[in-house]
Amino acid sequence: MSRRERTKAANRAAILAAGRDVFSAQGYGAAGVRDIVRRTELASGTFYNYFPDKASIFRAIVEETAEEARRRVRAARAGATAPEEFVEGGFRAFFEYIASDPGTFTFLRRNLGTIREQFGDVVLPAGIGELEDDLRLAIDRGAMPPVDVVYCAHAMIAVGLEIGQQLLERRPPDVEGATGFATALFTGGLARQAPSLV
């Protein structure tokens, strides 16, 4: 990496960190580009070398957060040998991630409505596609019963987002309760789909 590339990477990281702080403190609607620039040591025009507007930096933060969440969840599901391991591992990894980092926790809690309303196209399709792939692999190796992969993936994502939102409202976040509830809900449903395989 050249010095110029390192500077560009550092500037982008500083803008993203400042953006996350501002969106966490003020929320997407109240935050502005000036608020973000003020939290950096960069000239105001530098922001526009990296992001054209407020929406684009918000989208970048959401994409980075979603990518890390998906990485952790996929790793947790990869070694599952039974339905409960697959379901519990995935939900636990997601809930632990959103509760473990105070910055991510605050950003998500403050902006979850905006993320779902305006930027769901960033988060949901990739997560659903990866979950469908993971479900197919788990079914092929006997770790999950044969289910409708599309229905199951959409249901799991929806439940994860809804319970995750409630998890963010609790003080302290109840990762164990959220994981236990989601796991029981899905493993009970899977047992009715194919009792001999669960």
Can you give me a brief rundown of this structure?
This protein has 198 residues and is mainly alpha-helical. The protein has nine helices and no strands.
Shape: elongated
Question: How much of the polypeptide forms β-strand, as a percent range?
Answer: under 5%
Number of structurally distinct domains: 2
| Alpha carbon gyration radius | 19 Å
* Secondary-structure element pattern, one letter each: HHHHHHHHH
CATH class of the largest domain: Mainly Alpha
* Main pleated-sheet profile: none
The unreliable regions are none
Helical amount among residues, as a percent range? over 70%
Supply the CATH architecture of the largest domain: Orthogonal Bundle
Number of helices: 9
The number of distinct β-strands equals 0
Secondary structure category: mainly alpha
What separation lies between the terminal Cα atoms?
A: 51 Å
Provide the residue-averaged pLDDT.
89
Question: Which secondary structure elements does this structure contain, and how are they paired or packed?
Answer:
Elements: H1 3-26, H2 33-38, H3 47-50, H4 54-78, H5 83-100, H6 102-118, H7 120-140, H8 149-169, H9 175-193
